[in-house]
Structures are given as C-alpha cells and as structure tokens.
Amino acid sequence: MALTHASxxxxxxxxxxxSGLPDTKTTALFKSEDLSVLRFVLAAGQQLPAHQMxxxxxxxxxxxxxxxxxxxxxxxxHAGEMLxxxxxxxxxxKALQAASALVTIALKH
Length: 109
Description:
By secondary structure, this protein is an all-beta fold. It has strands at 27-31, 35-42, 47-51, 57-70, 73-78, 82-85, 91-106. A hairpin with a 3-residue loop joins strand 1 and strand 2.
C-alpha cells in the first residue's frame, strides 16, 4: 500500500496523540525533493539504533520523553522541546516514556 503524503497547502494535525498514542504507528507526513517530515511514535523503552543522515535533522518531542544520544552524549527531550542535528551526526533515539515526535529531515545538502 502506498503512503499518502500531504499536498502543498494541506493542514496536517501534529497535536499530541494522548490516549491514542499506544495505537498509533510512525507515519510519513510528507516528502518533497528537499524535505521529509515524519511523526515518529515510540513505545516506552523502544529504541532506534545509532545511525546518521546526509542532511540536517530536527526532532521535536510532541509528547512523552525521548533520549537522543548524539556523538555519544545523551540529551533528554521533553514535550515541547526540539533538538537540531547537523548533517552526518551519529545519533540514536530511545523512548524514556511512550512518545511521539515530529522529525524533519533535509534531503538536500
């Protein structure tokens, strides 16, 4: 099944999921030639292993609590906080609590 991405000018709901958090999966909100935006949903304790991306990234915690380890240094993100990662930054993500986050990835560098 193909993913449905938002089109230009379409309003996208990125409010906290609240009680719907456990039943929601990570989704791609849109992808263009230059930019990709996803809503990552992680259960408490769930992890994304260390990796890097060729472009810049922002991770905005919408709800819950995330630990993002950047170049070996852990940073805690609470709801309403955002982290910027320069291109090629090695990072891993762990949900300290069930969480959702808005992740923006620059595809051109």
